[in-house]
């Protein structure tokens, strides 16, 4: 089985697809993939995660730590759960590419 974003074996972040267009809004963001014609609306927290993901090629742990720094009232466990859920959804939507799937882009 190939590791994906949601696997505990992988702490590497997926890659944002370079073709994805995005617009920041006052209460979130909207993403669009011209390849798949997918529109994806994000709330403010997901928008922060998207921005960090675009800027950061570190690890899931580093991304979660950066999110926690922005939202210190949330527990680290809840942040990690939410980040992993969002990353998996972005991957399913074709907006990011896992390292395992990079050969199939």
Structural description of this entry:
- This protein has 105 residues and is of the alpha+beta class.
- It has a single domain (16-93), classed as Arc Repressor Mutant, subunit A (Orthogonal Bundle), CATH 1.10.10.
- The protein has helices spanning 44-55, 60-70, 76-92, and strands spanning 15-16, 21-25, 28-33, 38-43, 96-97.
- The strands form 2 sheets. It has a 3-stranded antiparallel beta sheet. Strands 1-5 form a two-stranded antiparallel sheet.
- Strand 3 (28-33) and strand 4 form a beta hairpin.
- The two termini are 19 Å apart.
Percent range for β-strand residues: 15-25%
Q: Tell me about the largest β-sheet.
A: 3 strands, antiparallel
Could you tell me the mean pLDDT?
Answer: 85
Low-confidence stretches are: 1-9, 101-105
Distance between the first and last residues' Cα:
19 Å
Please count the helical segments: 3
Task: Indicate the CATH class.
Answer: Mainly Alpha
The overall number of domains is: 1
Q: Find the CATH topology.
A: Arc Repressor Mutant, subunit A
CATH architecture: Orthogonal Bundle
Strand order, main sheet: write it out.
2-3-4
Percent range for helical residues? 25-40%
The succession of helices and strands, N to C, reads EEEEHHHE
Radius of gyration over all CA atoms, rounded: 13 Å
């Amino acid at each position: 089985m190939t590791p994906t974003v949601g696997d505990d074996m992988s702490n590497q972040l997926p890659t944002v697809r370079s073709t994805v267009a995005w617009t920041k809004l006052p209460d979130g963001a909207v993403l669009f993939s011209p390849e798949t014609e997918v529109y994806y609306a994000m709330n403010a927290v997901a928008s922060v995660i998207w921005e960090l993901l675009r800027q950061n090629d570190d690890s899931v742990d580093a991304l979660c730590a950066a999110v926690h720094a922005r939202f210190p009232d949330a527990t680290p466990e809840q942040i990690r759960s939410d980040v992993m859920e969002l990353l998996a959804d972005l991957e399913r939507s074709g907006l990011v590419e896992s390292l395992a799937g990079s050969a199939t882009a």
